[in-house]
Design goal:
three-stranded mixed sheet, 10 helices, 241 residues, Spore Coat Polysaccharide Biosynthesis Protein SpsA, Chain A, seven-stranded mixed sheet, alpha/beta
């Protein structure tokens, strides 16, 4: 199956070259990479153009606006979200795509490995994801349409399922976006959280805001979206300033 990797960018000149170098070392034989220019003002696009990518523009600021723009341009049977500060292993695409042999699967995700965090946070975080995220996803999958656990920059969607769900929800700016996407596609098939589908990413948001503060910004929207839906998200948790 052909894969479309969509990467939203806003001033990612420090990370984009590493991310693109890694994605173009993938062992999957058929994929495209779409860079979404979400109001970049630095050298992100200049760097990205050195790689065989397609660049599309979305002037409306927000991760979901950018992702939805990328989805609309995607040509693949599988749509993959990847962040500009991620470093995928060589077999990431092939491991994720293998799940979609099962026609009942609509979405797949896996843990983040915060490679530039201190060792204690790095190890405890990934262990927490292995146990809690996997377990919570298992429980949610027992309730049809309730949702699942997905990590935004490490998420795979069957393109038809995502389209049937209405695409990415542009009412959400940032926080809760992955939970909303999981809930929407879970109405069209199973969501899998695979502990073996690990993605290296930066802990820069934790460095900037602090671990506890940022954890609450992720946890509160998760429960609101799962139990009440995205309309209950406040502007603070949607990420608006």
């Amino acid at each position: 199956m052909k894969i479309s990797v969509i990467i939203p960018t806003h001033n990612e000149e420090e990370h984009i070259a590493t991310a693109l170098s890694a994605i173009f070392e993938q062992d999957h034989p058929d994929f495209e990479v779409i860079i979404i220019d979400n109001a970049n003002t630095d050298k992100t696009l200049e760097i990205a153009k050195k790689f065989p990518v397609r660049i599309v523009s979305e002037t409306r600021r927000g991760t979901m606006w950018a992702c939805e723009r990328g989805r609309q341009d995607a040509r693949g049977d599988i749509v993959v979200r990847m962040d500009a500060d991620c470093i995928p292993p060589k077999d990431w695409l092939s491991r994720g795509a293998a799940h979609f042999i099962d026609p009942k699967i609509s979405g797949v995700s896996g843990p983040y490995d915060y490679h530039d965090a201190d060792l204690l946070f790095r190890k405890s975080s990934i262990y927490f994801q292995y146990v809690v995220y996997k377990g919570v996803n298992f429980l949610l999958q027992r309730i049809p349409g309730r949702g699942g656990v997905m990590i935004g920059g490490n998420s795979f969607f069957r393109a038809k399922s995502l389209a049937a769900a209405g695409g990415f929800n542009t009412d959400i700016y940032f926080y809760g976006d992955d939970t909303d996407s999981a809930k929407r596609v879970s109405k069209h098939g199973k969501v899998v959280f695979n502990n073996g589908l690990v993605m290296k990413t930066s802990a820069r948001r934790f460095h900037k805001e602090g671990i506890l503060k940022l954890q609450f910004k992720y946890i509160i929207p998760f429960f609101k979206v799962i139990f009440y839906g995205s309309k209950r998200l406040s502007k603070e948790y949607k990420g608006y300033k």
